[in-house]
Design a protein that fits this description.
- InterPro entries: GNT1/Glycosyltrans_8 (IPR050587), Nucleotide-diphossugar_trans (IPR029044).
- Keywords: Membrane, Transmembrane, Transmembrane helix.
- By secondary structure, the protein is of the alpha/beta class.
- It has a single domain, classed as Spore Coat Polysaccharide Biosynthesis Protein SpsA, Chain A (Alpha-Beta Complex).
- It is 31% helix and 13% strand.
- The chain contains eleven helices and twelve strands.
- Strand 11 and strand 12 form a beta hairpin.
- Helix 3 runs parallel beside helix 4.
- The longest helix has 22 residues.
């Protein structure tokens, strides 16, 4: 009895058994699980998707974020335009105007124009540079090789001793029917923007600018800026009209074109495409602005303009130096601002800057200095000194 009691006292009481889940087997070595195809190449897929998105964005007209406007912001989207169907046309009948045309082509290249460029020049000129003094050949080669100009030698004859009749050369642009549209401009200009947007305006046989400086005495179209649709029939008609036996002694390209298109031409805005340098010299700007309400602001006018045409009669063109006895009477003068009580010399500064810029570019591009100033006042007035009424 005693032994049984002792055994019971020494016996360890059993604890109630609790449930525990089975243990996972222990891996003896660290072997990663195989990844799926998407997990394995996900970084490359994301990169390809990002590149595809950027390509689609750049090739479309979608704008995700606002951006600063371009210096030349076109009003139309130029996507898929065949620019080989359009061309800028220039003509040169002497060495001075050849340099002017090369300056125009340089500006078109610099400003990013995409249309073709063609140049008519006397067929007796050539592109064989005979010497360092052969400036005409040098400039023709420069136009062709530097500015992608298509050279077109042409027979340019003078019917009489009148220097203005060489302006009929511009009629040759109508004969270039390999193009849908040609923009013919006189070369005594400074281009501020390219004009490619004009090739895409609504169709019309010709688009011209109004000779606003002749209003209200005359309402005519100027011939220094022509957006035309080439036609061999029209070209032949114009060349016949340019012959001395078909036109009056005071009829030139402007008169002939007004007779052809005065009532039917599309009229382009002169405030953008026909600013004259002489506008900075006058006191009344109603004709240019088109109203009496707007205040003349020369700086805003320059920002709006795409080109400036040099016309400051009786001053010579910008590649000729000014007569000292004349410039003082013709140069724009500073004015007094009524509200601020200070001098306003913006007209003078802009006008002087235009001439300085033209002469600097003439030197840089053509390696030519300005021609000597003519005698003033002239002793004898010849035909070449007389400017046809309304011409610029």
């Amino acid at each position: 009895m005693l032994i049984e009691t002792v055994c019971n006292a020494l016996t360890v009481p059993t604890m109630q058994t609790r449930f525990s889940p089975p243990l996972k087997p222990i891996r003896l070595s660290h072997t990663p699980r195989p990844k799926s195809f998407l997990r394995r190449y996900s970084r490359w897929l994301y990169a390809l998707l990002a590149l595809l998105f950027l390509y689609l964005w750049r090739s479309s007209s979608i704008t995700l974020l606002p951006s600063r406007p371009l210096v030349h912001a076109p009003s139309l989207i130029y996507k898929n335009v065949d620019w080989s169907r359009y061309a800028y046309s220039q003509y040169a009948t002497n060495s001075a105007y050849l340099c002017n045309t090369v300056m125009v082509f340089e500006a078109l290249q610099r400003l990013g124009s995409k249309a073709d460029r063609i140049l008519f020049y006397p067929q007796e000129w050539d592109t064989d540079i005979a010497s360092l003094d052969d400036r005409d050949s040098q400039l023709l080669v420069k136009a062709r090789d530097w500015y992608n100009v298509k050279l077109m030698p042409a027979e340019i004859t003078k019917a009489d001793d009148d220097a203005w009749n060489t302006s009929f050369t511009k009629f040759m642009a109508w004969g270039q029917d390999q193009y849908d549209r040609v923009l013919q401009m006189d070369s005594d200009i400074t281009l501020l923007k390219h004009l490619d947007e004009l090739f895409l305006v609504p169709k019309a046989p010709v688009a011209m600018l109004r000779a606003y400086w002749r209003i209200p005495e005359e309402r005519r179209l100027t011939s220094f800026f022509l957006l035309l649709e080439p036609s061999m029939d029209v070209y032949q008609q114009l060349m016949v009209e340019a012959r001395p036996d078909h036109r009056g002694k005071t009829e030139y390209d402007m008169e002939i074109l007004n007779r052809f298109y005065g009532d039917s031409a599309m009229v382009l805005p002169h405030r953008q495409y026909g600013l004259l340098s002489g506008e900075f010299r006058v006191d009344v700007h109603k004709n240019y602005l088109g109203n009496d309400l707007e205040t003349w602001d020369p700086e805003r006018v320059m920002k709006e303009a795409s080109l400036v045409h040099f016309s400051d009669w009786p001053l010579p063109k910008p590649w000729i130096m000014w007569p000292h006895t004349l410039i003082g009477d013709v140069m724009p003068r500073c004015k007094l601002r009524e509200k601020l009580g200070e001098k306003d010399c913006r007209n003078k500064d802009i006008w002087m800057g235009l001439y300085d810029d033209f002469r600097r570019r003439r030197k840089d591009i053509c390696a030519l200095l300005s021609a000597p100033a003519p005698e003033w006042p002239p002793r004898n007035t010849s035909k070449e000194d007389k400017k046809p009424k309304g011409h610029v």
